[in-house]
Amino acid sequence: MTVTPSAPSAGPAETTTAAATSLRSGSLGTTDIAFFVVSAAAPLTVMAGVAPLAILMGGIGAPVGYLLAGLTLAVFAVGFTTMSRHVRSAGAFYAYITRGLGRRVGIGAALLALIGYNGMEIGVYGLLGTATRDTVHSLFGANIPWLPVSLVGLLVIGYGGYRSIDFGAKVLGVLLVAETGILVLLAGGVLIKGGAHGLSLAAFSPGNVFVPGMVAVLAFAFAAFTGFESTVIYRREARDPSRTVPRATYLAIGFLGLFYAFIVWIAIQAFGDAQVIAAAGADPAGLFFSAITTFVGPWAADLMRVLIVTSVLASLLAFHNAINRYGLALAEEGILPKAVARIHPRHRSPYVAGLAQTVLGAIVVVAFAAAGADPYMQLLLWVNTPGMLALMLLQLLAALAVPFYFRRIIHGEGALRTVVAPVAAAVLLTGAIWLVVSHLDQFTGASTAVNTLLAAIVPAVLAIGLVLAWWLRRARPAVYANFAAEPPAEADA
């Protein structure tokens, strides 16, 4: 794969062709990349929308589930970030998997990544429509249809991806500060007033952690971190990527794990250890709004509703940017059409890949609407679920790839980073995938037949990718031979 060295920023009148333009290298620091990753996780939406279910199923020990999920992914990050210092390809997951497990599996992983990231984003347009509809109804009493909102959201996100990466980083920085800020405001109110019945650490006692419902909590918790590994996708646009990418990865995992656990604990304190499960069961969707109304004020609940919409927008923009860069890398590999590799001469963004992703999203959203599907229960949950499983499987394959990769090269890395941590991560991630698959009905609310179909999509896509690799080896041997090749050293400059 050939990567054109970065050129100075082009002006509007510059006649340089898009194909000869590179991404804007050196644009993103550690915090910028972490903003993309944490924004994709949508902390406010995860807390207000999912955490009440975790409390309902796992009891007051739910905060520990998020800590355990974060710890597992931190173990994964040890091998993952160690390998990032040696693999400079823009292909992220599939490049790592190719180097460790071979081109066939790598090409299968590339297809899996496309499906996974697209699934994680496109389904969320259903959530955007319903969240906006519910917010407008709550604030103004008006009823608006979800489909126009989702389509406008597609255009807004498409424009955000069309602009430069530093523009996206600034937008996400503002939105992320706002959504985490409202949760910090809730936490401040609860702590100052001492909770409903005084502050308690009973949530962290073994008797409340080692309960049967913790299995379901762990499944929800692992899902809440989906997309954290996308730090490496921004390698070509990062400043000093060998340092920036690992730092951003650990920063994102550490922040999400601690913040999730802290906010879930705050929600428990807002109602009391003995009362919170009943409150979550009576109105899970309203748990956080009720808490912030009590401890901060009704105005804060209204603001939280608005910020949930912006939280969803931030998640969409973050995933959109990640998908665009995967599309760009695969077009440069020769897997996708060459036109997808075009980069805007002024904004230095993969704008054709972004346009293709926006069109695909519109097709899926309109198809679900035409079928009369529910935007939340079907568009969101049915499209997100295989996307989530695909990304978890990619994490597992990447963990397995690390020790195989380091066996093939001369390096100065220790066994803890190259063998022990990745093998431990692979074991833990296998357990995490089993937890999610075995509790799929709690994610989708669908029948066994639908859940079986949704889960089957992931191995089916991987199998199609393996067939594609077989075909490329015979029909396009040059593309196969150069797949996930190491770029020139100046690409990281």
What does this structure look like?
This protein has helices spanning 30-41, 43-49, 51-58, 62-84, 93-101, 103-122, 124-140, 146-162, 165-193, 206-209, 214-224, 241-271, 276-282, 287-295, 298-333, 351-370, 375-408, 415-438, 440-444, 448-475, 477-481. It has 493 residues and is mostly helical. The chain has one domain (18-492): Amino acid/polyamine transporter I. Mean pLDDT is 87; it is low at 1-20.
List the helices and strands and how they pair.
Blueprint: H1 30-41, H2 43-49, H3 51-58, H4 62-84, H5 93-101, H6 103-122, H7 124-140, H8 146-162, H9 165-193, H10 206-209, H11 214-224, H12 241-271, H13 276-282, H14 287-295, H15 298-333, H16 351-370, H17 375-408, H18 415-438, H19 440-444, H20 448-475, H21 477-481
Helix pairs in contact: 1-9, 1-12, 1-15, 2-15, 3-11, 3-13, 4-11, 4-12, 4-17, 4-18, 5-6, 5-17, 6-15, 6-17, 6-20, 7-8, 7-15, 7-17, 8-15, 8-16, 9-12, 9-15, 11-18, 14-15, 15-16, 17-18, 17-20
